[in-house]
Structures are given as C-alpha cells and as structure tokens.
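hey
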C-alpha cells in the first residue's frame, strides 16, 4: 500500500514571497513568524464577521512599547502581575509575544483565522523555549465578540481589528458582562477608527488620546514591507492614532 502524499499546506495570500512577503526585523531577530499583510477579503474564515475585519498586519514594536508605557503610568486597580492581557484579533501573536515579556497574570489572544492562530501558537512555543515568556500564553481561535472576559483586572489590546458593527456588538456585550466590575477593564486601542463608539457608549472614561510615533527603525521596516504589497492598498505613517480607555461603569461621573 502506498502512503498518501500529504497535501501541500495552502498559504494565505500575503504570507508568501510570491504574494509580497518581506520579513520584519522583529521576526529575523527573534526567530518567529509574524510578518505579512493579509487583506480582509483573503482571510477566508467564512465567518459572518469577516466582512467587517480590516486586514492582518502586525503592530510596530515601538508603538506597542510606547502605548504600554503610557498605560503603565495610569493608575490601574491592581499591579501588573494581577492583570490579564488580551489581544482581540491577535493574528500571529506579535503583540502577545511582546506582552509576555512582562509579568502579566496571563497573556491571551483571540483570532478567528485558523492559520494565523496556528502560526501564533508556534511562535509562543518558540518564545517559551527561548525563555522569553514571563507570563503563561494561550491563543483561542474564535470570534472576538464571543470571547468571555476572564475574572480579575483585564487589559484588552485592539490593533484596529474590525469595523463598527463588530465593535458595537462587543461594547454592548461588555456593558452587560462588566456590571459590578468597575475599573477592571482597560482598553488599549491602536489605529482607533471606532473611537467615536467608545466616546458615546456610557461607562467608558478616556485616559489618553493622541498619535504615537513609530521609531525610525520601524518606519523604515514597515515602509519597505508595504511598498512591496501587490495592490498598494495600505500605507505606513510616521505614527498611529491611539487611545486608552477605562471601564468606569455606573460610577462614572
Ligand atoms: C491588524 S491585525 C492585528 C494583529 C495583532 N493584534 C498584532 O498587533 O500584531 C487584526 C487581526 O484581527 C483579526 N480579526 C478581525 N476580526 C476578528 C474577529 N471578529 N474575531 C477575531 N479576530 C478577528 C484578523 O484576522 C487579523 O488577524
């Protein structure tokens, strides 16, 4: 009996050299795989929320670190060690990997594209094997709206993963789920296209709003990557508009 030849793994458009991939220095330095640009139409999840997804593209490390530093200067309800970091729309986990270098209680990711989630899990294994992970990490493959927030203080990271309809559903869900949990959810929002929704939803208090600059190094890397994309659809700017929110619930004055 002859063995069946395993089927070649199909690659998402944007994750192969043929479809424009150039590796970000973050990957080359750390031996992980987080680079690439996958347009929303190519995510191929078959999920009802896919049409509201933006695209896959990983966060610039310098923007992530600056935003985390700003958040750490706000007075949270507990020390960092008691917070669970959650990336909604985690992709291949670049933000999770950087978060796991801090002693969070846990670092969780939620990604509905199964190939991206699988690559993310491999990256985490690499992070653990090289002793970079200070926090336990776990990637869930499901819709961000369906993901129940864990108990205790949480900080949710959003790198503009989805548009208004999904953001609205998420905020409505949280308004119910967070009753009695004032101060227990902070939101770090990069490329905050749906910021208006947070401003009009009762219970959210804005702690920061403004541009966060990419380092020169990240700008050069992102520009060379995005210049190479086939459709020239996306651009890398010198900064990302960002916001930090805290759930104050009914106690909000
Ligand atoms: C801009 S990428 C951000 C990747 C990652 N957070 C980072 O910073 O490196 C947005 C990701 O959100 C995912 N996404 C979009 N809508 C989603 C949803 N409703 N549920 C889960 N993941 C979603 C996309 O598949 C994509 O991988």
């Amino acid at each position: 009996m002859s063995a069946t030849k395993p089927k070649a793994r199909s690659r998402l458009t944007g994750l192969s050299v043929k479809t424009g991939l150039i590796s970000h220095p973050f990957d080359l330095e750390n031996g992980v795989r987080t680079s690439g640009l996958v347009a929303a139409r190519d995510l191929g999840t078959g999920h009802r929320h896919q049409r509201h997804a933006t695209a896959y593209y990983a966060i610039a490390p310098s923007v992530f670190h600056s935003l985390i530093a700003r958040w750490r200067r706000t007075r949270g309800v507990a020390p960092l060690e008691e917070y669970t970091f959650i990336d909604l729309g985690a992709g291949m986990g670049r933000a999770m990997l950087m978060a796991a270098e801090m002693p969070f209680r846990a670092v969780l990711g939620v990604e509905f594209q199964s190939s991206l989630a699988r690559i993310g899990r491999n990256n985490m294994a690499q992070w653990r094997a090289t002793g970079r992970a200070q926090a336990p990490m776990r990637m869930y493959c499901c819709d961000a709206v369906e993901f129940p927030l864990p108990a205790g203080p949480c900080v949710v990271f959003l790198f503009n993963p989805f548009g208004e309809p999904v953001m609205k559903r998420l905020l409505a869900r949280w308004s119910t789920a967070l009753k009695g949990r004032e101060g227990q959810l902070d939101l770090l929002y990069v490329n905050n296209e749906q910021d208006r929704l947070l401003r009009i939803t009762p219970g959210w208090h804005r702690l920061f709003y403004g541009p966060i600059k990419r380092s020169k190094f990240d700008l050069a890397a992102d520009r060379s990557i995005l210049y190479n994309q086939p459709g020239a659809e996306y651009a890398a700017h010198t900064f990302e508009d960002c916001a930090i929110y805290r759930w104050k619930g009914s106690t909000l004055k």
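Residues 114-129 form the longest helix (16 residues). The beta strands are 38-39, 55-56, 84-88, 106-110, 137-140, 154-159, 185-190, 204-213, 239-247.
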